Amino acid sequence: MTYSKQDFFRELDEIIAEPIFVGDSVDDLKEEINVNMWWIGATAEVLETLSVNEILDFIVQLTDNRREKMRQANTDHGMYFYLWFDDQAGQLRFNLISDFHTDLPFGATLNIIDTPVAIVGDFLTQYVAPSPRPDPYVLDVFMAHLI
């Protein structure tokens, strides 16, 4: 059985349907990270058929959905949605943590960027034009405050 573009988008729909966990305190960070972390990956053949705009449309749908789930949870605080390309795993990853956390949970030096376009581009072209890791390594992360 081959993995198709339709399979890829079916998986994206499943991610949108997933529940989220909204923590009540800084002590809930680990649970937020574990429950709210998702990733997408695809074969080189499927990635070749995708466009940056298709992935950006998914990100907009996902963040709109997460805002709605936050409203349904009756939370009294916002959450940070953040997205990065894990080049070692070949995956586009994203997570959601409460906005009372002061730092994103990474051990690497971060470069917070205001649009996910470059990150999505790296994900889509990983098999065609892989980018060498800079030394020292700095991870590009897109972050949006959802309220």
| Largest sheet descriptor | 5 strands, mixed
- Give the distance, in angstroms, between the N- and C-terminal Cα atoms: 42 Å
- Please state the CA-atom Rg, rounded to the nearest Å: 16 Å
Number of helices: 5
SSE sequence, one letter per element: HHEHHEEEHE
Give the % helix: 25-40%
Strand order of the largest sheet: 1-3-2-5-4
Q: Shape from CA axes?
A: globular
Low-confidence stretches: none
* Whole-number count of domains: 1
Total E-strand runs:
5
Any overview of this molecule?
With 147 residues, the chain is α+β, with helices and mostly antiparallel strands. The protein has one domain (5-146). 37% of the residues lie in helices and 22% in strands. The chain is built from five helices and five strands; from the N terminus they run ααβααβββαβ. It has a five-stranded mixed beta sheet. A hairpin with a 4-residue loop joins β2 and β3 (91-98). The chain is globular, with a radius of gyration of 16 Å.
Tags for this entry?
single chain; 147 residues; alpha+beta; five-stranded mixed sheet; 22% strand; globular
Task: Give a summary of the structure in a few sentences.
With 147 residues, this protein is α+β, with helices and mostly antiparallel strands. The chain contains five helices and five strands, in the order ααβααβββαβ. The protein has one domain (5-146).
List the SSEs and their pairings.
Blueprint: H1 5-17, H2 29-35, E1 38-40, H3 44-49, H4 52-72, E2 79-86, E3 91-98, E4 109-113, H5 117-124, E5 138-146
Parallel strand pairs: 4-5
Antiparallel strand pairs: 1-3, 2-3, 2-5
